[in-house]
Here is the input.
Amino acid sequence: QVQLVESGGGLVQAGGSLRLSCAASGRTFSSYTMAWFRQAPGKEREFVAAIFSIGDIPRYVDAVKGRFTISRDNAKNTVYLQMESLKAEDTAVYYCAAHENGYYSSVYKNPTYYNYWGQGTQVTVSS
Here is the structure.
């Protein structure tokens, strides 16, 4: 069983920055695919970014490319989402997700691919 705990959300002005963290339990964190999703009120959960354990480059939704960076520290069992140049439309609850297979998969954008989820952290960007 894997437990994920997000932190780092908050209220920020448009143009500002935040860094989200997701701490994972489990001895095999380094082998997981890790991802961030977000869900705005009245909308479906949306893929934001993913990072694989082996080889492939991180992936991003077009709306955040060039502004957000996903990274991982396997020694700390933690994945991060550095968010820059935030916009009002980035406002959402952000969720961390994990899949135990760390290889690239073509369905990485699909929420159903992920076995484990955190409780979410609210990010609010004021315009």
Summary: The two ends are 40 Å apart (CA to CA). The chain has a mean pLDDT of 95. The first strand starts at residue 4 and ends at 7. The chain is about 0% helix and 45% strand.
